User: What shape does this take?
Amino acid sequence: MTDQDNLRERHLLATERLSSLISEHEVEEPYGEYFRKTADFLLKGSYEDLMPERYQESYTNPVYAVSVFGIEMGRLLSFLAYELTSVIPFKAEGEQRLEDVTILFEVFLEVYTAFLAETGGEGIDPETLSGDIRSILTGFVTDYTDVTVADRIRDILDPSRDFAKKIIMEADLRDLSYLDRFGEYVNDDTRALAEYINSLPEADIGKMAETFTKGYIDGFAVTGKDISRKKTVSIRYYLGFERLVRASVRCFEKAGLESVIYRRPLHAAVRKGLARVGYSGDPVNEQMDYDHREDEALFLDRQYVERKLEVLKGVYEELSDKAAVYGGPAVMERFGMKEFEPVNHEESFRLSDRQQKLKTELTSRAAEIQNGYISGDEVSFTIIAYPVPGIGEDFKEIFKETVNINTLPCDKYKQMQQCVIDQLEKGRYIEIKGQNGNRTDIRIQLPPIVDIKNQTVFENCTADVNIPVGEVFTSPMLKGTDGVLHVSKVYIEGLLFKELTLTFKDGFVTEYGCRNFEKEEENKRYIEENILYHHDTLPMGEFAIGTNTTAYMMAKKYGIFARLPILIAEKTGPHFAVGDTCYRREEDIRTFNPDGRELIAKDNEHTEKYRKEEPMKAYFNCHTDITIPYEELGEIASVDDSGVRYPVISKGRFAVPGTEELNKPLENL
Assistant: This one.
């Protein structure tokens, strides 16, 4: 009997047991109902069971589960219920994911058996039994990392795992029922997007695909990397863009690259908060995902960390040949979805202080392992974004303008951005001040330039890895970078931040706050989770000036500025990034601007101190952009050692000779 035969037998036995469990009343209430309903979901459940209108009395809702079962048991059973929701997409892949479905069935049945063993006599003591359930669940996550974590890496690197790619390349995309074959939740907005994409002329689709793939290929050329050594590229996108993705796959094929298209992470051991890295449908219930964003608090301990790292090392070694020819991701983002403001629930799992440190350690050590097989100085990427119909009644016009923005003439921007760079580099530091209620007052210390004819500290960024065009940026020195960054309203990774304020001293965040929640501790926790990523502090990794005023005015014209993705938003004004520099693990690659000058601002004092000998301490493995809109921008000026000021932007307008055209879109502001 083969391993697959054994797996089929395990799956059959588990399925039969679930079928009989549905009608059993052996476990006392209220637990019995939990197991009957959850077993029924495992056998025939659909996304309808997870919709927001059913969430108030759903076991995936930790608030409801705790109200029924108490704090400890409620959290555990809610964790399990949420983990089991991934059977829906796994089942869509059939035999390829039979093991994933089976292990989920089996852990549920193991928990049920533990309850059965306590039935009778004096009844279930949840305080005693919760310890056993916790052990079962933590053991499941840790022990099965050789399946869950290993398969995640295989999905990214192995083009033979082509479930989604086959649908994209072979389905009749005019029949929108193909969307249901992915096993993801698909809302009406995504179906309308797919229908619109189908309506576009083939020539338009070809140009959009060429822009996307050319940006990826140009990224290698600009950074001096050898793309001829690469054979695969991973495409990450949201459903609805299949016709464009199909055209992109063919463009990559012409360039000698095979596309890998893999699903968003599903198992608890590979999820990273709310990130949906891979191909993805729509979130069926954003509050549900938010409530479970820190479920790893259940199992994150030293044993789990070492086990996961061991598996990572083993699978990368197994796939070392595929890792060596992996070129990096090509990402197609979307924007314009309905705004989501999360609600914090104390019933959710939360990482302890010790676990937060363990998580940052795990992230750093995992990045080191990955870099040993997929070297950061040999891969590239590209990102592009398009709107979805949910952005409003002007969707078609916004889509067309976005296509235009993504194809703006790079040469013209290159010249204007060089004028901005020349002005910026007249000073030793940059001052940025807000207006119209914006309290930003910050100083950015620039690295010294020894040879101004041959060296530069600002990169002149055109449309290659980051589409659209329109940005100059640098890695600031930390010492001397001081002050307050404030934005009245900004979306970061899909989450709204109100009155976000970060204070910097010698380049590091020292204080932070926002006004999303009534309690100050909740606001701080919100920032710690979604900007600081559980680090005690982060440095300023980037200061940039976005020059794409055309994109800015599109956002103002249609009132969608708050709904822009950071990819476009960062081009529409000055922005700051906390975390690593833009050159993480690429500091020693020589990079030149179009004017021939070499970029020298790739390190800061922190990376210089650690990256050669202790790289785990050098990098934070995050980089989060925060943009100030033009109307909130009073002044950006370069200041030299004598105090002479060289204005770059004044009262929301570019003030550098040679950049007058950048102000034309702003004339009607």
User: Anything to note?
Assistant: The two ends are 72 Å apart (CA to CA). Residues 3-143 form one domain. The CA atoms of residues 305 and 333 lie 31 Å apart.
